[in-house]
From TrEMBL:
Origin: domain of life: Bacteria
Protein name from the UniProt record: Regulator of ribonuclease activity B
Signal peptide start-end: none
Lineage: Bacteria, Pseudomonadati, Pseudomonadota, Gammaproteobacteria, Aeromonadales
UniProt xrefs under Pfam families: RraB
Organism: Zobellella aerophila
SUPFAM superfamilies membership: Hypothetical protein VC0424 (SSF89946)
Subcellular location(s) per record: Cytoplasm
Swiss-Prot/TrEMBL keywords: Cytoplasm
Regulator of ribonuclease activity B domain ranges (all copies): 9-110
Amino acid sequence: MSEPTDWQQETRDIIESLLEDGSNPDAHYTVEHHFSGSDFNRLEKAAVDCFKAGFEVTDAEELTLERGQTLLCFDAVGKAPLTEEAIGAQIQQLLPIAAKYGIEYDGWGTYFEE
């Protein structure tokens, strides 16, 4: 058996934390995948590809980092059951888009479900 990737381990940890806190294991979750970069044109092209792949895409936001650098970011939003397989499949769709445009895939998040 191969070693899990960083994303696999992070996904496993997030899911375990949510379930330990009592989140509903049978709900469909809104999963926000985070992207960032410094080039608006690259980010915009990646957002279009994410949209074409079936994700809702948020408007780009501008963040100023501690050292004064500006970073642009957006989320690609999908729905999925809270399983490593389902969320991992979304990640596998999105990682090549980030790589294609030289932007960062910064992980994913979701919300507690009753």
